[in-house]
């Protein structure tokens, strides 16, 4: 029987059981109360309060500008909406790279001020000390390897990562290090599907992919991409389930027309 039918609240234990049982994990980003409530009611397993809010909510070119305070605002809004799913929050750029004490302080702020269930952090061996310190304080940590958007200026491109043997081997090693440090799951972004399969089979914790193929334990998409609110972003891995841009555009034009034509409000829509 699906885990969906058995439990009232998703936890790290439930996510681990889903991997063992071969049940795929569903994950979407959300940044506000209203959308998070819909996703939770629909039965999503994990909501990621992503630093992608920097792009889709604030209009920045990269994820780098968003602050810890802004992430806490979005995360608290999401947590107030949910009853069932697991909520993970990105540690934003600049809140953990300096040293492990700063990383722990940032993670604790998120947990205390939002009520979230865990944090996500980008990187492998380079940030393993921070991962260990955060986990030692009792905070669940999700790793993130492959294309790591906070390092975009280092990479210089959003192209597929780990296509060369050396980088692929490092990614596999980093995944094992994150598991050994105590991470409960890892996101793999934009890497070859065969490599993602190798990673998923090499570790015992859930591997969640975005542009990492079908052989992993779950999938995550950015809400605005999945719902078709964005028009410009068209990577190969994206499947749009709605075209909300067109729907909202049309509804807005209809509203404008009715207001201009003095058709709204009509007699039944006033007091």
TrEMBL record:
It is found in: Cytoplasm. Gene3D superfamilies: Phosphoenolpyruvate-binding domains (3.20.20.60). Binds 1 Mg(2+) ion per subunit. Keywords: Cytoplasm, Magnesium, Metal-binding, Methyltransferase, Pantothenate biosynthesis, Transferase. 3-methyl-2-oxobutanoate binds at residues 51-52, 90, 120. GO terms for molecular function: 3-methyl-2-oxobutanoate hydroxymethyltransferase activity; magnesium ion binding; methyltransferase activity. Pfam families: Pantoate_transf. GO terms for cellular component: cytoplasm. Pathway: Cofactor biosynthesis; (R)-pantothenate biosynthesis; (R)-pantoate from 3-methyl-2-oxobutanoate: step 1/2. It catalyses: (6R)-5,10-methylene-5,6,7,8-tetrahydrofolate + 3-methyl-2-oxobutanoate + H2O = 2-dehydropantoate + (6S)-5,6,7,8-tetrahydrofolate. It is an enzyme of class 2 (transferase). Its EC number is 2.1.2.11. It comes from the Bacteria. The active site is at 189 (proton acceptor). HAMAP family: PanB. Catalyzes the reversible reaction in which hydroxymethyl group from 5,10-methylenetetrahydrofolate is transferred onto alpha-ketoisovalerate to form ketopantoate. Belongs to the PanB family. This is 3-methyl-2-oxobutanoate hydroxymethyltransferase. It comes from Chitinophaga eiseniae. The lineage of its organism: Bacteria, Pseudomonadati, Bacteroidota, Chitinophagia, Chitinophagales.
């Amino acid at each position: 029987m699906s885990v969906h039918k058995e439990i009232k609240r998703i936890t790290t234990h439930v996510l681990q059981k889903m991997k063992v049982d071969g049940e795929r994990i569903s994950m979407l980003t959300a940044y506000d109360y209203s959308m998070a409530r819909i996703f939770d009611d629909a039965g999503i397993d994990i909501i990621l309060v992503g630093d992608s809010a920097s792009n889709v909510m604030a209009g920045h070119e990269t994820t780098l500008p968003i602050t810890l305070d802004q992430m806490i605002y979005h995360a608290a809004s999401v947590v107030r909406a949910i009853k069932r799913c697991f909520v993970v929050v990105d540690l934003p750029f600049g809140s953990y790279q300096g040293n492990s004490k700063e990383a722990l302080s940032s993670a604790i702020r998120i947990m205390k001020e939002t009520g979230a269930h865990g944090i996500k952090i980008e990187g492998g061996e380079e940030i393993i000390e921070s991962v260990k310190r955060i986990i030692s304080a009792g905070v669940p940590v999700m790793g993130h390897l492959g294309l790591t958007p906070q390092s975009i200026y280092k990479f210089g491109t959003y192209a597929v990562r780990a296509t060369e043997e050396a980088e692929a081997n490092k990614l596999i090693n980093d995944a094992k290090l994150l598991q050994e440090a105590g991470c409960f799951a890892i996101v793999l972004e934009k890497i070859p599907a065969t490599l993602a399969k190798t990673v998923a089979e090499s570790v015992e914790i859930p591997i969640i992919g975005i542009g990492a193929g079908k052989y992993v334990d779950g999938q995550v998409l950015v809400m605005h991409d999945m719902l078709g609110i964005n028009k410009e972003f068209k990577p190969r891995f994206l499947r749009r389930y709605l075209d909300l841009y067109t729907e909202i555009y049309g509804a807005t034009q209809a509203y404008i027309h009715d207001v201009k034509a003095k058709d709204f409000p009509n007699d039944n829509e006033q007091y």
